[in-house]
Batch of 2 targets.
Target 1
Amino acid sequence: MTVQSKIKAADTVTKEDLEGLSPQQLRAVFREGRWSGGTEGLARGYAQANLIILPKDVALEFLIFCQRNPQPCPIVEVTDPGSPMITQWAKADLRTDLPRYSVYKEGVLVDQPTDISEYWRDDLVGFLIGCSYSFEQALLNAGIPLRHQDENKIVSVYTTNVQCVPAGRFAGPMVVSMRPVKRDQVVRAVQVTSRFPATHGAPVHIGDPTLIGVDLNRTDFDTGVFELAEDDVPVFWGCGGTPQAVALASKIDFMITHKVGHLFVTDKLSEAVAAI
Amino acid sequence: MTVQSKIKAADTVTKEDLEGLSPQQLRAVFREGRWSGGTEGLARGYAQANLIILPKDVALEFLIFCQRNPQPCPIVEVTDPGSPMITQWAKADLRTDLPRYSVYKEGVLVDQPTDISEYWRDDLVGFLIGCSYSFEQALLNAGIPLRHQDENKIVSVYTTNVQCVPAGRFAGPMVVSMRPVKRDQVVRAVQVTSRFPATHGAPVHIGDPTLIGVDLNRTDFDTGVFELAEDDVPVFWGCGGTPQAVALASKIDFMITHKVGHLFVTDKLSEAVAAI
């Protein structure tokens, strides 16, 4: 019995069932409502993406905001206004093909459904924004361990005092993820992640967290915190939480995102979209 | 007498007068209407950019088009809708700070002024798109000669049969520039230009022109044609002529661009914005 037929035979599935499935197969499982959990570790090697859906009347400003802040907000695809269809990084329907969503009205979380068909409107535009899962695999491939994976935590995420370049109503501080890197691997970590501009690219800061307004023991998010060893250097990358936080703070009346950790799985191999 | 004071003393200037001027000084000369010629070779080392100004009602679709076609259309900056001010790649006014413009109404060229203040409207959005001058300097630095410079021609530009990924009303074939590269330098040419995604990046095609619908002896533009030697390989890069051609073909009712060869000179060193 293949993995796929095993899946087909079951009403719901476990994360182990999903291992080895292709991005297309995974999106089918999500679409059928048989998996509503996280996507970390699934379809290894394929890029995953953050989702933000906004009304068309703020889409131009939002796209300009992302263009001005490519490290936290690397846009990988934008739908045609009014269309929920992804055509470049996969052939997929944003209303159904993620495992779970967050729906915000007037800046307040109102629902976390597994399907947003009932929320879709013909004035919405979908934005896919690169996710750090891609460069994390590249770090592992280069022999740079990921502490949060080793400790079975979510990567640490912080709000900095570094202001993004504003665009219209979109303004606010950059959100970053932090990974402890051994001092003698910091240069390699910069080189490796620079190859992936579509998934946040190179670090935005290395070393002293206080220079960007971060206290490593206080995250503004529900994420892990690390004990730093003597030879650990904190390395900070732009985080896809930035555009969500900025959009929420701008009091957009309606927004849908992926639920944290429940990302869009693309058909693009991360290595196939590396800069070089 | 410094170069600058020599400039200040003259009503108009020659291209030699402009050599050694900074981007800021050059933009001042353009703003004062004392140079309306081309910008090739000026402010060496600094990125130059193509300009397209469009009405806001098509700006979102145009930006999505560029996002989907990053090699011919690498957006480096977008103005706030209604504003002619560049704030990131320079502090500059798009109405005055280029040497010469082309103004199109209903797809027809109606004027080529040195100042577009009288044409500015509060619904316009300015787009700067990276220009190949940046990676050309990098090719020269790597010992890869540029035939069109050696022969004192404009680089060859062709319309291909490769369709861009469309977005709304924006659709059409990719326009490319071609440079003959010696066979043993082709790999290095790919490596060198890959570092500059903001200025068209890596080639889109190497070798047989017929595979992309190009006859090397027939350009659709007023550009040079090269005799290829036995060991020459034609190498094709995405060209900033693409978004202009696509915007014109889409019958936008109003558009302003730089005049061909009369680009926006930015304050960014090309090497400072290289991918790695």
Note: The CA atoms of residues 82 and 123 of chain B lie 5 Å apart.
Target 2
Amino acid sequence: MLKKYLMAPGPTPVPERVLLEMAKPMIHHRTDEFSKTFAEASAGLKKVFNTKNEVLMLAGSGTAAMEAAIINTLNPGDKVLVVDAGKFGQRWKNISKTFGMDVQVIELEWGSSVDPALVENFLKSNPDTRAVMIQGSETSTTAYHDIEAIGRIISSRPDTIFIVDGITSIGVHETKMDEWGIDVAVTGSQKAFMLPPGLAFIALSEKAWKFCETATIPRYYLDLKRELKNQLESTTAYTPAVTIINGLKVVLDMMLEEGLENVYKRHQINGDATRAAVQAMGFKLLPTGTPSNAATGFYLPEGFEGGKFVKFMREKVGITYAGGQDHLKGRIVRVSHLGYHDAFDTIVAISGLEMGLSRFGVKFQMGAGVAAAQEILKNYIGE
Amino acid sequence: MLKKYLMAPGPTPVPERVLLEMAKPMIHHRTDEFSKTFAEASAGLKKVFNTKNEVLMLAGSGTAAMEAAIINTLNPGDKVLVVDAGKFGQRWKNISKTFGMDVQVIELEWGSSVDPALVENFLKSNPDTRAVMIQGSETSTTAYHDIEAIGRIISSRPDTIFIVDGITSIGVHETKMDEWGIDVAVTGSQKAFMLPPGLAFIALSEKAWKFCETATIPRYYLDLKRELKNQLESTTAYTPAVTIINGLKVVLDMMLEEGLENVYKRHQINGDATRAAVQAMGFKLLPTGTPSNAATGFYLPEGFEGGKFVKFMREKVGITYAGGQDHLKGRIVRVSHLGYHDAFDTIVAISGLEMGLSRFGVKFQMGAGVAAAQEILKNYIGE
């Protein structure tokens, strides 16, 4: 018997209630039955995004929504600022370059959170910047950027929009799209929304919808104006990912039953506990700025073969952690707190690290990580 | 109790074995476990497409793959020929126009199958045509186009590619991509592949891959060269639709266990039986050329309110048929034979038509449709 524990920052475990919902016989998408589910899911998404605007659903992965954010609002030659502090910052850069933007970059060490003043100063010197792109949580480094502060800086500028990849922040950290001045917010189904991958979400502010009016890059599948027209009537321009949307309705029911504040608090506590644990074991956290509550990354000892450890844990022990990407490959481990993840999942994640790393010859006081996590978690269980 | 029967041409019923496979706990996509499933699914797809080239999987609906077909192979200003004989022919036209092609059209009455000589003559007069686009089966009219004959015409022309929307023909009618000279073949998960929507497939011939070398339209999410590089190593550029791909592996096992020849024959027999039935009931078939075995469309009596009938059948009787689109709205009914559909599903579909239309006051000999279908089906049951 090998029980499986999915502890990587996406895809995340799907609750049994949602698996069973999605295992129901297929239904047709051009029906009142589906439109009702769609409308309910849509209303729930608005609550999570904290927006009065439509949150559009696209059949595709998060990258499709990132591309949609750019090609629907900007034009070739537009000056854009990308905060690049990890693999997904680089994705904003790559997509923008693909479509001919004039890409300016604030490049940071992996693990950093950007100082909002850097963005403010850039915009003062470059008032012709059409968009600022960033991650809420940079999944590759498990660092969080202060999108509230940056949003408030950009919101006073009528000719600049703020585009946020919230793929591992929305549903994890409270995100007040409208109040903070986020103009385009993007996320996907397989993170905080606890669903299989294949469904992406994107919401635009009124300012961003105005940008769409002058955006000339040809688009068809990812044409957001066409989707808006359809989705306002609780349908989609093209065949939607019916099953995942049916699951989404159940997920949103679960999140709203728990209470969004409690969802965010749960991620915070599991993040705090994991950070305390890996530090008690003597490891250095990867985030040097604000840590994200989506996942916790930490450095392995110098010369340790991280790839072998992650593979052993996944194949022989049953726990799927994430390793590092690009230059951090083999050098870090990332432990997810995303979605359907409780205090005891955190204990399992840390216990797996302790027993596994110990077998791989790493020295630390056995049990120190679990104990440190328990000191935090004990205050919340049974509440 | 209201049992549900999904008889519209997509989404189609998903076999229980596949629903249960997809209800298993989520797995991570960057693992040997998933890559093994991916590789097996990929090998199965090649058998259905009859191609030695890769069949790429994209997280998106069929329209995403249609757009990918165009933007990866063609350039703005390219002369393209679209065979427009229904709603999905129009989609080729719309996507091509969106990306600036010089769109030439062979426009046909809805229900017709194109005469391949029309395409041949066009290409003789327009040797600079870069692509011909068509549907294998035009879902809106249930007519089949002779893509083999057209493929053979185009295959001798090195500067013209043949792009086929096989969304309701691949897996229904035998499709020999390589032998017939199809350069780009596209389909989706929710038709013959008996899966939920959200996964699209696209395969390119060597000739089409050469066209990609000179194609300049910017593309990121739908960049097929990047996908090819990844998918040759049994992974994907962006997070794939994990659940549906796991289901695909099971579907392909089922199709190959049945034998592809038997799959096609089953669609043929259910199509023949349904066509015989609706004609025995006195209705006129919508296809005037070659009927598709994906679905059967027929005209309702003049003045009959088709929309009300389809709604009544779906909501009160439990059978989801499809009505007509655009100018055929309310005037036709389409009955699907796609995917997980056997002889008795055909009987249910026809019996539903007989009892339902009779209740709506349409006159015909009760039982004539079922009897006509049975005369055909009886020769195959138990074989």
Note: Residues 16-257 of chain B form a domain with the Aspartate Aminotransferase; domain 2 fold (CATH 3.40.640.10).
